[in-house]
Amino acid sequence: MTRLKILDWYVHQGHQREFAKINHDICLVGANKKIPSWNEKHRPLNENITLSDEASLRDENFDVVIVRSPVQRERVSYFVKKGAVPIAVVQTTTPFDIPSYCRHVVWNSLDVMTNYSKKFPDKRHYYIVHGYDPEEFCNLNLEKNKRILTVANAFRSRSHVMGFPLWDRVSSKLQIADVVGHGNLDLYKVDRQAEDFEQLIRIYNSYSVYFNPTHSSAMPRSRAEAAMCGMPIVSTNNYEISKYFAHKKNAILSNDDKEIVLEIKRLLGSSMMRNDFGNSAREIAIKHFHIKDFISSWESVLGDAV
Q: What's residue 1's pLDDT?
């Protein structure tokens, strides 16, 4: 495919670093129309990403423009009128009002796509789950600390999505659960977060169990990152997680407090169980969430659209 010029809007550094691994040039604009702030310690900036303010692009022509929220409708339509093909990306449990001029929609949750795509019968729908590089999110075989990890930013303030009440109940019963991420001063008085990407990988590799309590997050990135690093996964059983993991066979999938606590205790009490679940989690992540498949799927969508 001819190298494309793509306009995108900054929403999530982790996702957009993986998205930019496609072989095209991406211009990234902040939601406030200004140059977005990219933390190169947390995620290296891809060479094919140009950070820009919106005003500087008014005379530019793009092959593709990504539609990520209804707020951007007028901003996107300006570039569509100049010839850019719009592609909507839905990464939430309910879709935004996708503009009529947008004919292609990418969903990161199969269940959400199944439930809502019929609302947009005139559009072409694609399911692309997040992608990760197993050489970056790797198993370092470090000694574990017999504690439980959850990676979440602004955890309590996003309770309706992130499932903080469930985490709080489980944590209070076990007393060995930690949260890593920014925006959690209400929990610890200081933010417990990785200083850089390498430390994040070491954190995933240092904990004994990963607990994902999300309630309304369609396909949590941190859960898949932890799985790719070989962590045993304990997760709420929402959306299509059971399409990839099987309860009590290679993960714990439950929405019941008592069962979650009991199964975490079983995992912590058995190194063999932790190794089996951790190895299985990495195998599943490589099979279903590999960056190569993510890139291939996006190239197919771009080929259809342009």
A: 75
